């Protein structure tokens, strides 16, 4: 078999392993989904009227705020579920499974690719679940075309791939699953300081550059514009550029750490 055929075969085997592991132990993924679900319900039903009035500068319209809020929560869901990726990789490292895989006649990259593909599928299923909850509580996307829906899903998938590779690297360098969870915490923290809950121009002036020049904000604004049928400006290119840069960084970082001889 060619090197490519071996890589595909072994990656498929590792993908099945990680999906089977996720099916047998779903509690990790479900626990990580609690935060975006609770924040979605909290900001819609408790703060929705106040937040919509503040953003709109007029009367409260909870439906408008749901439309504004959901794209950011979808990106937060991706960040939250990829924390599970870091924890899963750290568990494999801590339990010696990765060391065992290094001694076997399998394609070395297949171990990481299996983790990444399995995690991307889980994250996208989580996004669909959160999206269904959002629709159930009133989110509507009547102005978006079918092409814009597909483009929005493509941005979410690409950003998921980027964060997953970063999470894999975090898991590889962590001494235990608890440390991996703490190391990956910025993946759910950054959406909180982006444009998830309020527009950037509503933030204090000194804080606006922090919220604007980070990878989550252009992705949030791109998905928001696509789902609501509004202009996305330069955010689309920024979101793609951030995603590709993080994919490259995460891949080579993870590969470098994985190929190091165990101490």
Structure commentary:
This protein is mainly alpha-helical and 263 residues long. The protein is built from 12 helices and no strands. The longest helix has 34 residues, at 62-95. The protein starts with a helix and ends with a helix. The mean pLDDT is 86.
**Uncertain parts:** none
Distance between the termini: 33 Å
Mean pLDDT: 86
Structural class: mainly alpha
**Biggest sheet details:** none
Task: Give the assembly state of these chains.
Answer: single chain
Strand content bin: under 5%
In N-to-C order, the SSE pattern is HHHHHHHHHHHH
Count of individual beta strands:
0
Number of H- or I-type helical stretches: 12
Shape: elongated
Q: Give the helix level as a range of percent.
A: over 70%
Backbone CA Rg: 19 Å
Which SSEs are present, and which pair or pack?
Elements (H helix, E strand, L loop, with lengths): L2 H22 L2 H19 L2 H9 L5 H34 L1 H7 L4 H29 L9 H28 L3 H7 L2 H4 L18 H5 L3 H13 L6 H25 L4
Helix pairs in contact: 1-6, 2-4, 2-6, 3-4, 4-6, 4-7, 4-8, 4-11, 6-7, 7-8, 7-11, 7-12, 11-12
Descriptive key words:
mainly alpha, 12 helices, elongated, 263 residues, single chain
Short summary:
With 263 residues, this protein is mainly α.
């Amino acid at each position: 078999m060619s090197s490519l055929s071996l890589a595909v075969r072994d990656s498929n085997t590792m993908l099945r392993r990680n999906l089977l592991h996720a099916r047998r132990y779903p509690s990790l993924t479900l626990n990580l989904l609690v935060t975006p679900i609770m924040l979605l319900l909290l900001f819609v039903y408790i703060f929705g009227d106040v937040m919509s009035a503040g953003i709109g500068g007029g009367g409260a319209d909870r439906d408008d705020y749901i439309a504004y809020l959901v794209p950011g929560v979808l990106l937060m869901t991706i960040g939250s579920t990829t924390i599970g990726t870091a924890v899963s990789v750290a568990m494999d490292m801590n339990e010696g499974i990765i060391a065992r895989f290094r001694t076997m006649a399998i394609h070395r990259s297949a171990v990481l690719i299996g983790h990444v593909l399995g995690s991307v599928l889980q994250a996208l299923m989580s996004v669909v679940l959160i999206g269904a909850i959002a629709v159930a509580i009133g989110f509507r996307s009547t102005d978006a075309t079918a092409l814009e829906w597909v483009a929005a899903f493509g941005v979410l998938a690409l950003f998921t791939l980027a964060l997953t590779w970063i999470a894999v690297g975090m898991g590889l360098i962590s001494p235990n699953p608890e440390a991996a969870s703490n190391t990956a915490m910025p993946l759910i923290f950054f959406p909180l300081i982006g444009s998830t809950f309020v527009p950037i121009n509503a933030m204090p002036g000194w804080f606006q550059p922090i919220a604007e020049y980070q990878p989550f904000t252009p992705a949030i604004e791109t998905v928001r514009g696509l789902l609501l049928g509004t202009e996305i400006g330069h955010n689309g290119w920024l979101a793609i550029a951030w995603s590709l840069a993080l994919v490259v960084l995460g891949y080579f970082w993870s590969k470098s750490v994985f190929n190091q001889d165990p101490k």
